[in-house]
Amino acid sequence: MASRAAGTYPPVPEPLPHPIVDTHTHLDIGTGMRLPLGAGEPAPEVTPDEEEEFPDLDFFFDTAEQAGVRRIVQIGCDLPAARWTTALVASQFAGRAGVADVNGSHAGTGGSQADANGSQTDANGRSAASALIDPSVVATVPAPPESPRTWMLGGAALHPNEAPRLAEAGLLDDALTEIEALVTSTDRMRVVGETGLDYFRTGEDGIAEQQRSFRAHIEIAKRTGRALQIHDREAHADVLRILREEGAPEVTIFHCFSGDEAMARECAEAGYFMSFAGNITFKNADELRRAAASAPLELLLTETDAPFLTPHPYRGKPGGPYLTPITARKLAEVRGMDAGDLAEAVWTNAETALGSWD
Ligand SMILES: [Zn+2]
């Protein structure tokens, strides 16, 4: 893997006339806390090569601020990343004046959480999830900034490529239980994702467990009142079918939307949000751009999926949330609208989908 030192990152783009939101990013991977999952990778417990240099969180916060990316959703998609994400967003929450209780129940889900985890609440009345967060993971999260500049929400799930591996080890059910505990441990965790299907990287034998995991995540999202973020790689028909069969959560988001116009129409009819990433800028992405042009404005979201999918002309380099304006500009261009207006619409859509960041 190439060095991910800060110097290899693309320059910070001009901010748009309106702040923009990155609804899906992996700062855990960007900062070298986690390595990306690969097909059939032995275990995600590996740590990055000691030789490798990664930028720290401040690099991502500073560059995001310079680029006008003022809201971020950090996604952890294996258990260690999910724990790290929960600790990170909870620590920012705790840093806010007047907000002391990072373990406070989500208004809409307090009851069901108590039912599910009541017996696991510890002597201090903390939720099961906070007890599950490994203190050594929490210790790696920097102290919350005095006044958080780039405000963050979080999400967690078992990635579709992670599910078969856990199932094979007999760990999938326990892992799903922990994911639910983590997403309900603080109000800052608003997303169950990314989950879904990935037929590009998973062979025949992994598909059944992948589908079981996807169905379980749909249930968790509905039970906890969180938004569902879907990873769909070369599995459009089955993803849509399983959502129909299970009944989709109230808020369902296709992260890194990769379908065509027909799929965009189907998503629009079902009221699913479509989140576009840097691949919309790639040279061979005409079909995706047509889909983006046809999607209803009120269902559009923007994201980076950083450090992956770095937009053209920086494709192949590592990225960060600060590159969202490049994707937003392209999205505005294919829709023939002003980029500031697009940013404003997406900003509103993200609040509709995920609630307030304040
Ligand atoms: Zn992702």
Automatic annotation (TrEMBL):
Keywords: Hydrolase
Pfam families in the cross-refs: TatD_DNase
Polar residues bias spans: 112-124
GO cellular component: cytosol
Record has Repressor as a keyword: no
Molecular function GO terms recorded: hydrolase activity, acting on ester bonds
Region annotated Disordered, chain positions: 104-127
SUPFAM superfamilies: Metallo-dependent hydrolases (SSF51556)
Domain of life assignment: Bacteria
Keyword Hydrolase included in the entry's annotation: yes
Protein's name according to its UniProt entry: TatD family hydrolase
Native species: Brevibacterium casei
